[in-house]
Design goal:
By secondary structure, the chain is of the alpha+beta class. It is built from 24 helices and eleven strands. It folds into two domains: 1-32 and 287-632, Butyryl-CoA Dehydrogenase, subunit A, domain 3, CATH 1.20.140; 125-280, Beta Barrel (Butyryl-CoA Dehydrogenase, subunit A, domain 2).
Length: 668
């Protein structure tokens, strides 16, 4: 099998109009970041941890978990050695543990993910200085392994309904954790089943006979030497899932388990030795970890989508199909406009989400810094944004990955394409850290309040300031068929939907319904309003952030970046034509022009399709796809992967002699 690059793929690279390395550096945030990322990849991949003698898809569920633990331990061992050699902190390797490199080594999830993503961040965000001094060092060094247990068998996104209790006993200065029902068992935490020996548990706090709501507690689950579950701890694994089967998701129940008073994280709320409860500045501060994870998830979705579109685009350059013109060779499927329609929007969405994630991360850090000074003013806005962006980006990512899989035809169904595994990872994100519909409704509460504030003449926060234009009764301006015009149209749509929701709630209340029932009856429209609000945020942020970058890049790259923005904006205008017709002055002629504009953009971007995905700069070891390798040897790699199947180890399977032959001869 030749190791040369597929000639079709090479031709695609030769006709690229911009410098691919320049775009890679831009994506990474600078030349130095690209060099550092590549250095880390070289150091870790040469260790060979990612190499599997038998592909993990052929292993049993138990074997997959054991392999994931082995890899996770080897990975951390290498990272620790690097830290010692370079005298650097863990922050330099967070991208390794949780980013593309980590997911390449642990493709179906890591049992240590929640230790880094939730256990440590919760201690940093919710613990006192004294508690951090005791726990953080042990956690960073992996002297202990932690996880985060919030969701229960009977309650997930509705966290106020969680049933696990933590009752303070002043006579012993201890909290007693208890699971009063089967539905109160913690369910889903990664690493909980057999990996973690400590856990942050969210439980209803009771002291002096009064419930004070959910609070975080550090609970030891297993003996540090034997790893046996401690007395009163009921723990195990929840079983096989669609994806993430290396994550070791578990269940956890408590039978009157006692922990020291000091194990309640008390940065915000406190329980004194006599049982007196000291309130925090805001009950929402307890949910800081969830906001952090939702912000991180937007970046994660970028990475998964970038992998999927890289695989599908390279495959589309290699695959030739049909013969639309007689006597001419079969064209690359990337030449079909329908294929470009499937893939180009995925490429532009990666850039839209990446810039939006950076913008949201900057806002998150600013708000958290303000919280430390006692300023809570922007917390509701951040909460509303993190909710809707998590919901919309995860839903869009799942749709994008599935569209990429389908664009690869039958070969996309193979696990060796890496697309089914990627889909399993992204679709899981639609429900964890808040089920998407519920999150949209949480954002809707903020939007309804903003509408009411605007009606009262009050100033609004920046991300909802557009509501004032509609709530004050200003007429819709003439439609402007430009990027800025479409973005403004999306603001009109979002504001119009919010206003209609408020009117419908009020109308239903006047007919005799209580507010809660009126809200429930309007909830489909409320979720739609939140999605439109988020869509407007994504469009406007992508446009404004790209405009800032445009002056810092070469003209050739600037042209392509702006074409991607145009494509994203026009695509969503066409996807939401009904909304635009309802709430703006767009005409049929405008829509026709948008369609022509969209098709023209696909034609303009077509020569740069492979260059754009090459700029994501995934090594083959990280992409782990027979369809998406850099050299384009699709068919050779598919055969190589097929031959790894254990069923090909012998020419005649034992089942032939045991079952098939007797059956065929009528002797079964």
């Amino acid at each position: 099998m030749s190791a040369k690059v597929n000639p079709d793929l090479q031709r695609e690279r030769d006709k690229c109009t911009f410098n691919v390395t320049e775009l890679t550096n831009l994506i990474d945030g600078g030349v130095q970041n690209t060099e550092e990322r590549k250095r880390q990849e070289d150091l870790l991949l040469k260790e060979g941890i990612h190499i599997e003698e038998v592909p993990s898809e052929y292993l049993s569920h138990k074997e997959k978990y054991e392999l994931a633990v082995k890899k996770a331990c080897l990975l951390f061992k290498v990272i620790r050695r690097m830290q010692e050699e370079e005298n650097t902190g863990m922050e330099n390797y967070r991208s390794v543990l949780g980013g593309n490199l980590g997911s390449a080594i642990l493709a179906d999830g890591s049992p240590l993910t929640l230790h880094y993503v939730m256990f440590i961040p919760t201690i940093l965000g919710q613990a006192t200085v004294e508690q951090q001094a005791y726990w953080i060092g042990r956690a960073f060094n992996l002297d202990i392994i932690g996880t985060y247990a919030q969701t229960e068998l009977g309650h997930g996104t509705f966290i106020r309904g969680l049933e696990t209790t933590a009752t303070y006993d002043p006579s012993t200065k201890e909290f007693v954790l208890h699971s009063p029902t089967l539905t109160s068992y913690k369910w889903w935490p990664g690493g909980l089943a057999h990996t973690a020996n400590y856990c942050i548990v969210m439980a209803q706090l009771y002291t002096k006979g009064q419930c004070h709501g959910l609070h975080p507690f550090i609970v030891q689950l297993r003996d540090e030497e034997t790893h046996m579950p401690l007395k009163g701890i009921k723990i195990g694994e929840i079983g096989v899932k669609l994806g993430m089967n290396g994550t070791n998701n578990g269940f956890l129940g408590f039978e009157h388990v006692r922990i020291p008073r000091e194990n309640m994280l008390m940065k915000n709320s406190k329980v004194l030795e006599d049982g007196t409860y000291v309130h925090s500045l805001s009950s929402k501060l307890t949910y800081g970890t969830m906001m952090f994870v939702r912000v991180v998830l937007v970046t994660d979705m970028c990475n998964y989508m970038a992998k999927a579109v890289t695989i599908a685009t390279r495959y589309s350059a290699v695959r030739r199909q049909s013969q639309p013109k007689p006597d001419e060779p079969e064209p690359q499927i990337l030449d079909y406009v329908t294929q470009q329609h499937k893939l180009m929007i995925g490429i532009s969405t990666v850039h839209a989400f990446r810039l939006s994630a950076n913008w949201l991360w900057h806002m998150y850090n600013n708000v958290i810094a303000e919280l430390d000074t006692g300023d809570l003013e922007r917390l509701p806005e951040l909460h509303a944004l993190s909710c809707c962006l998590k919901a919309v980006t995860t839903a869009d990512a799942a749709e994008c990955v599935e569209r990429c899989r389908l664009s690869c035809g039958g070969h996309g169904y193979m696990l060796s394409s890496s697309l089914p595994t990627t889909y399993g990872l992204v679709t899981a994100a639609c429900t964890y850290e808040g089920e998407n519909t519920v999150l949209l409704l949480q954002t809707a509460r903020y939007l309804v309040k903003a509408w009411q504030q605007a009606m009262g003449g009050n100033a609004l926060t920046p991300t909802v300031s557009y509501i004032s234009e509609v709530s004050t009764g200003r007429r819709s301006p003439p439609w402007d068929n430009s990027v800025q015009g479409v973005i403004h149209g999306f603001h009109r749509v979002a504001a119009g939907k919010i206003g209609m929701c408020v009117a419908n709630i009020e109308k239903r209340q006047k007919s005799g319904l209580c507010y809660e029932d009126a809200w429930n009856m309007t909830s489909v429209q409320l979720a739609s309003a939140s999605e439109s609000h988020c869509r407007a945020i994504l469009l406007s942020t992508y446009y404004s952030e790209t405009e800032k970058l445009a002056s810092k890049v070469t003209p050739a790259l600037k042209t392509v970046l702006l074409q991607l923005v145009d494509l994203y904006v026009v695509y969503w205008a066409l996807q939401r034509v009904g909304d635009l017709l309802r709430f703006t002055s767009i005409s049929e002629r405008d829509i026709e022009q948008l369609q022509n504009w969209y098709e023209d953009l696909l034609t303009r971007l077509r020569p740069n399709a492979v260059g754009l995905v090459d700029a994501f700069d995934f090594r083959d070891e990280i992409l782990h796809s027979a369809l998406g390798s850099y050299d384009g040897r699709v068919y050779e790699r598919l055969m190589e992967e097929a031959l790894k199947s254990p069923l090909n180890a012998q020419p005649v399977n034992d089942s032939f002699h045991k079952y098939l032959k007797p059956f065929m001869q009528g002797k079964l």
